[in-house]
Amino acid sequence: MENGAGQPLGERVRWLRRRARLTQYDLSELAGISVRAVRDIEQGRVRRPRTVTLARLGGALGLDGDDAWWQRRPRQEPRPGPNDLPGIGILGPLYIRRDGAVTDVQAPKLRLLLALLALRFPQAAGFEEITQALWPDGPPRSHQGLIYTYVSQLRGLMRSGEPSPGPLELARTHGGYRLVTDRAHVDRTRFEDLVARTREARTAGRAAEALALTRRALDRWHGSLLADVPQLRQDPAAVAVAGLRVESVLAYADLAMELRRPRQALHTLRSVAREEPLHEGLQARLMLVLASCGEQSEALGVFACVRRRLMDELGVEPGDEIRRAHLRVLRQQLPWPDEAEPPARRHREPPSAPVRHAAPSQLPNAAGVFVGRAAPLAELSRRLLPDPRAAAGRAPVTLVSGQPGVGKTALAVRWAHRMRDRFPDGQLYADLRGHSVRRAVTAHEALRQFLRALAVPDGQVPADVDEAAALYRSQLAGRRMLVVLDDARDEDQVRPLIPGGGHSAVLVTSRARMPGLVARDGARRMDLGVLTSGETYALLAELLGRERVDAEPAAAAALGMLCGGLPLALRVAAARMAESPGADLAQYCAKLRESGVFHELDGADLPSSLRFAFDASHAALPEPSRRLLRLLGMTPGLHVTVGVAAELAGSPPDEARRMLRGLVDASLLEQRARDRFVMPDLLRGYVAELAERREAVPSDQY
Fold it and tell me: Which of 197, 564, 631, 657 ranks highest by number of CB atoms within 10 Å?
């Protein structure tokens, strides 16, 4: 049977299959037909294949939506493939393809702008980040006009010499510009979509289909990401795409060995491992694939080279994964191809899977009594839970901030325990002690803790924090893990602990609002407020007993108000009342009013006392801000303006505004409007007491 152009159908199927780098077996698996049927069609032994068979072959060959592809008259090729479509490429050297020809973008500014737009696609790139990318050392005065000029020039390059809109367009948005095209026309999104299909196939147990789809995804790459635009390689989106490529290569090698086709992955694995010489996961798989293909000597040479490089550059020995691969090569515990398997091993049981360490589960015990917080818990799920249908990208980071004692840690740990099944590769937890009587944990100390949990020996953890962070990101690549960073002090403590991408998630708690983490690292902040009156009543009922609270509902409401709705204050108050089971709530409220909340709620357990929670935040402030806070506590009225603060502090308004913003960032003030600030009631009582003592808490005490 021949198509409308007179070209034999079998030759056309063979050409398309080879262009897609599929074996006859791969094509049969993807199309759902037998290998024999594929072979007979290619060799011309089937004169009239059924239409449904041809449609399945078309879908497997990437000709989706063309149900009569075998009847189309080709020009020079059977059908334009992915590399013939108009498009923009960043998975290698930057290019624009139109009219079947590739256009190299020569002007440096145009290259930067196009690369940034392709990284952000299908979202827009904002004017501010465009300006930052084009002029990292500061923009010229005429930068807005220059951006318009560059956009106009890019539009000219993307259009095929016609004024009407084409398949590649550049549109103005409210805050910037974005590419307007199909996802298949940008190699990055085409790659991500194929990876998503690969995950679905692998999850469903369709290993051969997943292998073929991974091959098609990796074929989108034609070099290193942004090979000729190095300025954007550290952009979070670029780091995420590069990490997804490594994750895909690892999966490709695993699938190839699982299906006993190691040679199919060898070229790609060798190429990417050359670009990532210190990635032990890639090097370990390269060793196994080489040895499975009969290249044992080269596999052992890879181990020797990696070991030498790790010792020379990082001063560490190879990790467990590559050492296990080395041992398997020596013992020939390999997934031999059917045609290459040693006869002595041909009838043995397949080798056991490599040893896997137990997934770390470091979460502390959740609070025994926890009430309410339904909305914040739901919001955390919305922000942090991985979407199995989505391609891997930037690891989501959520920062839970709020005043001392508001229950940030309890919320984070409760949510983490509820969702631990959604992170099957483990949960990492670190108390960073940002506001503690003990010294704060450094980022490097936290990295050491996490790497130990990930089975990296102490002796192999680099002494440099950046190198340790790189090793940590490599360990998390391809995993679905939850990282909980509790009581963080500042952005520098958190940044090295954020994974490079994939489907892991990071949950941070801190009294600081960390605007830098939000602006630079894409974290999303969630300000946790005090308990509602209903939640306060429910917590007291759990702590003191329902009958006792129901007997004095008005007193329970008053106690909640005296404690400012803070869970910590309520728990300490309930503990005090538990010491006197016969006392009623009204009497205790009167005692609080008479003695003062902070005096009454002090305790021997310093870290759990209410005063300590506020003292630690107060001590972390610079002295001018401490003085202003004490002065604000003595000021009557609910609201404070910048003018009032400036007068109290004896400073210019700009300096007063800066100090007020610092107090807001430390969760010690709330900003209700641009020029109006409010101090929480319970904190006002603490600050007033400090002012009465007319002394600050020495910072070195903490």
Answer: 564
